[in-house]
Amino acid sequence: MRLSLDEIYATLQMVREANLDIRTATLGLNLQDCAHPDGAVVARQVGERVRRMAERLKPETARLSAEYGIPIVNARVAVTPVANLIGNPTPDDFIRLARALDDAAKEVGVDFIGGFSALLEKGTTRAERVYLDALPHALAETGRVCASVNVASTHAGINMDVVGRMGRIVTEAAALTAHAEAIACAKLVVFANAVGDNPFMAGAFHGFGEPEAAINVGISGPGVVSRALDGVAGADLGVVAETIKRAAFQITRAGELVGRELSRRMGVGFGVLDLSLAPTDKVGDSVGEILEKMGLSRVGMHGSTAALALLNDAVKKGGAFASSYVGGLSGAFIPVSEDRVMIRAVADGHLTLDKLEAMTSVCSVGLDMIAIPGDTPAETIAAIIADEAAIGVINRKTTAVRIIPVPGKDVGDTVRFGGLLGEAPVMPVHKESAAGLIARGGRIPAPLQGLRN
Amino acid sequence: MHPGAGRVVVTVQGIDRVGIVAEVARVLAEGKANLTDISQSVLRDDLFVMVAVADLAENGAGFDELSAALAASAATLGVDIRLQREEIFRAMHRV
User: Fold this and answer.
1) At residue A142, what are phi and psi to the nearest 5 degrees?
2) DSSP-assigned beta bridge partners for residue A326
3) Which of A114, A262, A360, B75 could form a disulfide with A204 if both were Cys (CB 3.0 to 4.6 A apart)?
4) How far apart, in whole angstroms, are the C-alpha atoms of residue A103 and residue A47?
């Protein structure tokens, strides 16, 4: 059937004026067969594997982007969680491995490589404890390597020993990169219910149970949704939900097409399409703006959680119909530093950490790219992680914390991370202590929600 | 299939002037691309908009070649010309 002019212009307008783009095409790579007792062998094999498999990723995404006329903003690589790859590791082995990943990423031209990760929701092996020792140094000494640690799941409960440890690791990573606004912390995600096919950084890794390689695509388009809402000013929320569904459908179809074509050209299977509305610091490319268009004078006000719940659900409904395989995180992201409207609401004092935490219970992921005062105790950071993990575990969803205690900075300061990571006003945290809770350690048992067999 | 073969959409936007349609048609014909649909109008007296659909031939210019030729025409005419594969429009607007 003939395409109408309206259809053609609608697509062009979405790209030109509403920042429609494919946020990321992420190549997931299995590295399990690179495992070896000798860390030097692992580093060499891993470097070779990434270079060989990802060599064509950048050129192919650039070509596809030109042919379809839709920007593919990022091409990235995610690998098997590395904590289990070295038989009898020392911390130096993991740092060498991080450097090998960093070098390979540089050579194939990808800005971030994820999977410097460990899944520790129920306990740690000896190798994983060595990994945790090396983690802050590995992040401080590399530029492109992204790490994630899963500390909880609905099935296993919350590993509070590791939660406490992650509080200290975040603090140490911040100290090691104090000269660069604690940038190491922006590359470290602490998860509950982590998924192995998420294409978005910094939390992407190639999970166990995944094939040898897969292309996972993350779509975006807060600007498209925001534009669509301009057409329904004053309409009731049922109409708003329907409008968002339609926009999500169109964005997702573009992502599905690009993902399938990229996987065909790369000779790698198509994994999933992740339907996440991911903001950028461009004007108009903001999740906060969508919430304000629904009728909030500022994001962070009472009503923000309800508005976000509607948005997140409508995005999923429209997207699920448009793609054969939906996965990853799928929902709306609310990374403070990458969203202009969120930044403004924080700077003006309208959006607090507590409200953000509430909002993460109804959207994908969690407390993302939050700058806090540099003197925040490690136990407080651990407690923030524990709260977020509890939301994920009880609601059977993924939650994450990417938090940055910036040395020498306090409430009122703004931190500039540069590039895609944007800038963040330092947010206040509660001053009373959770040290007693964190010091208890142990594991919070799996909730009844986890007993579904 | 020839790597460049398939259906493409050409969109043109810019200040109206003599010879835009002729130039786009010339480039497509030289690349052996068969023009199957064309629609154009002038908005607000001087904004020229045009959408053309064409089939790239097996033995004709490939996508990249045609894209480069149209970019050269765009520079000469002082208008914006885009070449895109048709699938993207179809995917976004049809179930």
Assistant:
1) -130, 160
2) A273
3) A114
4) 8
Read off the CATH number of the domain in which B37 is found: 3.30.70.260
Written in H, E and C, the secondary structure of A361-390 is CCCCCCEEEEEEECCCCHHHHHHHHHHHHH
Please identify every stretch of chain A with a pLDDT value under 70, giving residue numbers as ranges. Answer: 1
pLDDT tens digit sequence for A107-158: 999 999 999 999 999 999 999 999 999 999 999 999 999 999 999 999 999 9
Subunit contact A11:B90, Cβ cutoff 8 A: no
H-assigned helices in B1-95:
20-30, 63-77, 87-93
How many separate domains does chain B show?
A: 1
What percent of chain B stands above pLDDT 70? 95
Nearest to A420 by CA among A246, A243, A220, A266: A220
Cα A358 from Cα A352, distance rounded (Å) = 10
Confirm whether B1 is domain-assigned.
no
pTM recorded for the entire structure: 0.91
Half-sphere exposure for A42 (CA within 13 Å, toward CB) = 26
d(CA B20, CA A250): 31
Cβ neighbour number for residue B47 with a 10 Å cutoff:
12
Cβ neighbours of B92 in A, within 8 Å: 7, 10-11, 250, 253-254
Give the strand pairing for A399-406 and A331-332. Answer: unpaired
Q: Do B88 and A69 touch (CB under 8 A)?
A: yes
- Identify whether B82 is part of a domain: yes
Q: Which domains does chain A have, with CATH numbers?
A: 26-192 (3.20.70.20), 214-439 (3.20.70.20)
Cα–Cα distance for residue pair A63/A110, rounded to 1 Å: 15
Which residues of chain B does A9 touch, with a Cβ-Cβ cutoff of 8 Å?
A: 51
